[in-house]
Amino acid sequence: MSEVDVNKLKDPFVWLEPVGDCDAEEKPFGFENPLRAFYEDIAPPLVEKPKAPRTPLAPIRTTTWDPSQGMKGAKYPTFVPLPLPGTTPVTAAQARVPRGKSGKNTMVNVIVDVSGSMGATAASWKGYTFGRWEVARICTAIMIKQCLLGDDAFAIYEFESYPNVLWKGPSYQHQDCIDYITSYDMGRNYSGRSFGYLPFYPRGGTNIPSGLRECIRGMEGQGIDKAVTIVITDMWDQNGDYIFNAAMSDAGRGDGKSCDEVLRAYGPTFYIAIADYNSKAMGEKGMAELSRKLNEVHGKNINPPPGLFEAIDSTNASSAISLGGGMAKMAQMTK
After folding, report:
1. Are 154 and 169 in contact (CB under 8 A)?
2. Which of 3, 26, 135, 151 is most buried, most CB within 10 Å of its CB?
3. CA-to-CA distance for 214 and 58, rounded, in angstroms?
């Protein structure tokens, strides 16, 4: 792993890497879409159904209806003619109860490193190989599936040298996003997505603070009661300094608060570092150091630990299963 020379960079959080050609070697795919087949194979046992919905629906109004109104605005519209002659039918509209004892607005954010190094091979499944960026797509799809079952909103962000909103939140278009993020077809229109790159396609450098700030901007003014935030990156060091300094960078709101402080006020915030299996011992040490430093800053023992390491074994699917299962469990922490 390369070291960052802060003396040669204006911004010490930006690490420039060459962009690899992820399509240089044609994959001998037998499936029409191996990425989606991989997801559909490993997702079912990883996704857990919640015990009860956390954002229930409740009737909020009954209004006089006429044909010009249509059914717009009612999530579950009910056309109920009154039994008395000469009276007007009504529609009962149901909508999410945003606050209070009936439910809360909850969401999950995922912020993914899409720097050039994310093109490295990370998994093998039924004879096919997948890069880190593709494993991140599969695991994010698993997380969104968990959000669907938990009735949580979600948002997806990317960062390289600059941030990008991949899927604006808070969104409840779970299946639409799963179809998009597991697809190689850039010709389909998924709710106005930009098709400059495939989701998480590796490019550019590594600027973690930019992704954190973009996520913070995305939640402002949205009435979110609780949010879980998950950051995935392959840029880390054995002392935990790189990600820690990024987490402590200014949130850009003018109040002097750090990105981690703002995000953690919404709910659990996790930083997942990934690297090849040979880096396991060093990576686990680095993320343990990150957790220790964040504990010191916040003056408490954060549990589960905010810094996690996933050692990537590119010879099988175990790492993808482990990472996907971990993200599904994190998504359940909106309760």
Report:
1. yes
2. 135
3. 33
Please, is 257 exposed, middle or buried when counting C-beta atoms within 10 Å of its C-beta (0-12, 13-18, 19+)? Answer: middle
User: Which of 196, 206, 55 is CA-nearest to residue 118?
Assistant: 206
Look at strands 163-171 and 153-159 and give their pairing.
Answer: antiparallel
Half-sphere exposure of 204 (CA within 13 A, CB side): 16
Q: 113-149 burial by CB neighbour count: b if 16+ within 10 A, else e?
A: bbbbbbbbebbbbeebbbbbbbbbbbbbbbbbbbbbb
- Please state, in angstroms and rounded to a whole number, the distance separating the CA atoms of residues 304 and 311: 18
The model's pLDDT over 265-302, given as tens digits with 9 standing for 90+, comes to 999 999 999 999 999 999 999 999 999 999 999 999 99
104 and 92 in one domain? no
Dist. CA 178–CA 144, nearest whole Å: 7
Q: Cα(first)–Cα(last) distance of the chain, in Å?
A: 38
Are the CB atoms for 243 and 236 separated by under 8 Å? yes
Backbone angles phi, psi at 232, to 5 degrees: -120, 125
CA distance 238 to 218: 31
Tell me the per-residue pLDDT of 167-212, one tens digit each, with 9 for 90 and over.
999 999 999 999 999 987 655 544 445 456 889 999 999 999 999 9
309 shares a domain with 263: yes
Are 72 and 181 members of one domain? no
Q: Are residues 11 and 121 in the same domain?
A: yes
